[in-house]
Amino acid sequence: MGRLSFFLLALLAVVGFVNASSLTIQSPRFTISSSDATQLRSEQLSLTQKPDALKLGAKDALKLTFQVVDKEEGKGLQPHQTFLRFYDEVSGEEGIQPVKVTASGKAKFELNMARPPLSIPPTTSANPLKVTLLIGSFTHPPVKIDLFDLFLPESLPAPQHPEEPNFHLLPEIHHTFRPDQKLPPKFISAVFAAAVLGGPWVVLLGLWTQIKPSTPRLFSPHILPFILSLTAFEGLLLWYWVALKLGDVLLYGSILGVVTAVTGKNALSTMSDWRLAV
User: Fold this and answer.
1) Strand partners, 97
2) I need a surface site. Which of 116, 145, 219, 232 has the fewest CB within 10 A?
3) Distance from CA of residue 169 to its chain's centroid?
């Protein structure tokens, strides 16, 4: 039952809106004047036929007056919304300007080209703007009236912001990469790797022959730990080359350094004792 009542009320409201009297305007007139208040053109507007296109100069002003009335009662009233639409058919851009209407329905709109509103679309000297009056009311059907075509001075280009060049598209950056590094032959790499790894041992053995140590003394518990610590250093460098990182090498190398220093000092002391004994 509630839904049926709501439907009947909505139907009655629609029927009442359709049967409501419509709005129209009376005594529409426009006046074009120059900056020194000289009247350039003034005409009464017709609701059935548009006048010749209006043209405003850079300092001219357009004044439009009319009264919104109820067609049946002929009484002026104030609609809820009244706008002028400025539309460019070529670019498709439009601008909307509100029009103030008094309680008696009298309306007045002024367009001064010395201070044009920001909502007016960009204009050219070749294309006019279509000016349309739009009236909206909660109690009357909406009204749309084509008033006239309007030529405005050509719009100036927008001023350039000081930082605008910073947002322009920059030239594409082309990188020139160096050619891939040429690796030496594997044989040469192997020779230099053997020289790096075996060089210290050749020098050590050469110095060792100068003191002519006996073989049993070379494997003495006082000498052998130093030889093994040097061998461990060589293995650590080889491991670093293959898999280790620098932090691991520094950690393990610091430990081996302490061991090598202790064993080396012990080995030198032992060898000095041997030379004194000889």
Assistant:
1) 84
2) 219
3) 13
Contact between 32 and 40 under an 8 Å Cβ cutoff? The reply is yes
- Quote the CA–CA distance of 186 and 198 in Å, as a whole number: 18
Half-sphere exposure of 62 toward its Cβ, with a 13 Å CA cutoff?
Answer: 22
pTM recorded for the entire structure? 0.53
pLDDT tens for each residue of 233-274: 888 887 887 788 888 888 988 998 898 888 888 877 776 665
- The DSSP output letter for 78 is -
Asked if the model's pLDDT at residue 14 lies above 50, the reply is no
User: Which SS3 state, helix, strand or coil, does residue 202 take?
Assistant: helix
Q: What is the DSSP string of 120-186?
A: SPP--SS-PEEEEEEEE-SSS--EEEEEEEEE-PPPPPPPPPTTGGGGSPPPPP---PPPPPPPPPH
Is the model's pLDDT at 152 over the cut of 50? yes
Say how far apart CA 77 and CA 217 lie, in whole Å: 126
Q: Which CATH number fits domain 21-154: 3.40.50, 2.60.40, 2.60.120, 3.30.70?
A: 2.60.40
Question: Whole-angstrom Cα distance, residue 273 to residue 170?
Answer: 79
Cβ(113)–Cβ(61) below 8 Å: yes
- Return the percent helix, strand and coil in the chain, to nearest 5: 35, 25, 40
Mean pLDDT of the chain: 82
Report the side by side order of strands in the sheet with 100-101.
39-44, 23-33, 61-70, 106-112, 100-101
Token pair, residue 85, equals 């639409």
